[in-house]
Design a protein that fits this description.
Layout lengths: L7 H7 L6 E2 L34 E3 L6 E2 L7 E3 L23 E3 L2 E3 L10 E9 L20 E3 L7 E7 L5 E8 L7 E6 H7 L7 E7 L2 H11 L3 E2 L5 E4 L8 E3 L5 E8 L2 H14 L1 H5 L1 E6 L2 E9 L2 H14 L5 E3 L6
Parallel strand pairs: 7-11, 8-10
Antiparallel strand pairs: 1-3, 2-4, 5-6, 7-12, 8-11, 9-10, 9-12, 13-14, 14-15, 16-18, 16-19, 17-18
């Protein structure tokens, strides 16, 4: 299999075959400003989940376990322990990150489905200032103070629940990078995520990594909203009956791809025309949903996440858009 370059993910671990864990303080590059993803170039681009904005900063304790010249940096957000987990949502998989690859003599085959389950116990590490501001494997900007992670095979992007088996603490992270490639490691968390799992000092920890499938994401949001979800991910509504088993299933709504959102309806119509001229089938499945002065271009409906994701990949090959999967839309 052809060797590929995995940006800083490989650089992170290419020299690790003979290195040992550093457990002492080291000099660091000042991080007086948080790093934010670059702005989207066109309105048709999907909105990457906005980063958590940190207003107050404090000196970061030095030391801990990390590789060579990596580390916590000079500053860290105050009250980092109160930072919320990543908010899981459905995002199309980046097709360029689904191809099998080989790094450091190890071969990896990334998942190509959001619905494919994944659960594994193993060792987690963390990475910090050395890669803060560098591009991740899916082209975003790594911010060590956000709840993100690198994984060798989970879809990019996707979400995972990570639990420290030593203390029971859990976080949800957005997987947007590749790594770790050091044998014996299954996931590499951002500084912020590792801080919340309380293993910065140790450098690594035994964890359980559980992928947030669409059903798991549906259950997560249903629990937040005070509703219940069956094991198959179908939402259910609790009915006030004397019988405790009174649960009424509510079928999952169809899925759509949003490929653009415009303030001017002429621009939305132009995008529909462009899609129709490039791909007739997608053109026939396109429509404009106008609400509160925003005109959204939608393609669909689709009956499953995988079907919507396959359509997003195919559509992106014909038109320069990056679709966002939408649920629970009320269409006229």
């Amino acid at each position: 299999m052809k060797e590929v370059s995995m940006r800083s993910g490989v650089i992170r671990y290419i020299a690790f075959a003979s290195l040992s864990l550093t457990l002492a303080a080291c000099s660091s590059v000042p991080l007086d400003k948080p790093v934010s993803p670059p702005p989207a170039k066109t309105v048709a681009k999907p909105s990457v989940p906005p980063p958590v904005k940190h207003e107050n900063w404090e000196p970061a304790p030095q030391g801990g376990g990390y590789y060579l010249d990596d580390g916590p940096g000079d500053l860290r957000p105050a009250n980092l322990e109160d930072m919320p987990s990543a908010e899981p949502q459905l995002e199309p998989i980046a097709i360029r990150n689904t191809r099998p690859y080989t790094v450091m003599g190890q071969s990896f085959t990334p998942q190509t489905s959001l619905e494919e389950p994944y659960s594994q116990k193993g060792r987690a590490s963390w990475y910090g200032k050395k890669f803060h501001g560098a591009k991740t494997a899916n082209g975003e900007i790594y911010d060590m103070h956000q709840m993100t992670a690198a994984h060798p095979t989970l879809p990019l992007p996707s979400y995972a629940k990570v639990t420290n088996l030593a203390n029971g603490k859990s976080v949800i992270v957005r997987v947007n990078d590749r790594g770790p490639f050091l044998r014996g490691r299954i996931i590499d968390l951002s500084y912020a995520a590792a801080y919340q799992l309380d293993y910065i000092k140790q450098g690594s920890a035994e964890v359980l990594v559980e992928k947030m499938t669409p059903d798991a994401i549906a259950r997560y949001h249903a629990e937040k909203n005070g509703t219940l979800v069956a094991k198959n991910g179908v939402q259910v509504e609790q009915v006030a009956l004397n019988n405790a088993s009174g649960l009424v299933p509510v079928h999952r709504t169809p899925l759509y791809l949003q490929i653009g959102a415009f303030g001017n309806k002429n621009n939305a119509e132009a995008l529909v025309s462009q899609v129709s001229s490039s791909h007739q089938a997608f053109g026939k499945a396109s429509q404009i949903l106008s609400e509160s002065g925003v005109h959204r271009v939608l393609v669909g409906p689709f009956s499953s996440i995988d079907q919507a994701n396959e359509a997003a990949i195919e559509l992106s090959a014909f038109v320069q858009v990056q679709p966002v999967i939408k649920q629970d839309l009320i269409l006229p």
